[in-house]
User: Fold this.
Amino acid sequence: MARPARITRDDVAHAALRALDDVGYDQLSMRTLAKELGVGTMTLYHHVADKDDLVDAAIDLVFAGLPAAMPDAGVTGRARVIAVATTVLDLLLEHPGLIQARGQRALRRPTTLAVTNDLARGLLEAGVDPATAGVGIPLLLDYAIGCAGFTTQIEDEETFEALRQALPADEFGPLLAVNQAVIDTYGPPYTRRRAFEINVERILDGLGAR
Amino acid sequence: MARPARITRDDVAHAALRALDDVGYDQLSMRTLAKELGVGTMTLYHHVADKDDLVDAAIDLVFAGLPAAMPDAGVTGRARVIAVATTVLDLLLEHPGLIQARGQRALRRPTTLAVTNDLARGLLEAGVDPATAGVGIPLLLDYAIGCAGFTTQIEDEETFEALRQALPADEFGPLLAVNQAVIDTYGPPYTRRRAFEINVERILDGLGAR
DNA sequence: ACCTGAACACCGTTCAAGT
DNA sequence: ACCTGAACACCGTTCAAGT
Assistant:
């Protein structure tokens, strides 16, 4: 039996994901990663082509666990769409470094086609017109990415208070009014995940899902 | 009259925006930018605090022109929301480097509060419940960002054909069906901007906008 | 065959000095 | 007062050599 290689691509991918989670993409360096794995910097290049490929390996690691989390045949189409969308959001919220590193490619790996297909299945089962479903799938995914990485959501009352005091009421009346209504109706705690859930329901209504 | 400074913050911001558009954030360097402006690298630091501030200046430049593009009082609330959302999308599509560089901060500048306020105004005018409007505003903005920077949209028939041939029909039936319906119904040309317009209408339906 | 140190061509930013 | 070159502490990746 040959001596196993000291490190595998999987080891590298796991270390990269941990570094992305801990310090973010900007601070992720081949040198530091190699040091952490106890190998020379150049050894990494035997397992990944370059830094891009390193991040792709980390992405695949995250989405590899996704099919198992998918709802089984027993649920309604609407429940399936909600489950898939929020699972994607949760994965992205857990690993914000992925979006920082990859942008669009984070959801363009072969691994994520199963997700897209599950959304299509759920929407069709919920009675959504096929063309409307096809247009609506990117809406759900783009919103999940935008919400995870970029939301302008106000999540706590202090931020809202600060905003209220900073904005002249005569000019920003509508904004202050809707923010007040959100605080009164939904929170605290009012998280971006909660907002996502509420909005997915509205999106499904708009798409005509039963 | 004192000799005017050779370069202003505005010059630096314009040059930074051009560089972001041309070569992207990764290739944007203080050294190159300074050379292009015909000054020493360190001179830039008299106009911007650091590279982050440089990008913020470029962002403000882009959104500075936005209030002028806002619809006036004559339109319906629904039309206002559509106009504001698509204008934001167009700005982001024109300058993809902004999202690459900033992520969430791209829409968190004081300049963009006017946008948020206009969306609130439009939604309220369209009869949307205030709390629903407050939750729905980040949906519109997050979707615009996700769509501009990260969409998984299939925009041309070749990509669709490639996908169809790559995916086994028995496993990816729903995905292939909805994609076919989109091609048949909307395109070509079916762009991400077109998809955005369609989906904003559906979002407004879901939010209960008249 | 497998691994990797040294080197190349870059970065952003600090500091101290030049005019 | 205003500007900036040199230097510091980093990068990702190529190349050639080491074991």
In short: Chain B has eleven helices and no strands.
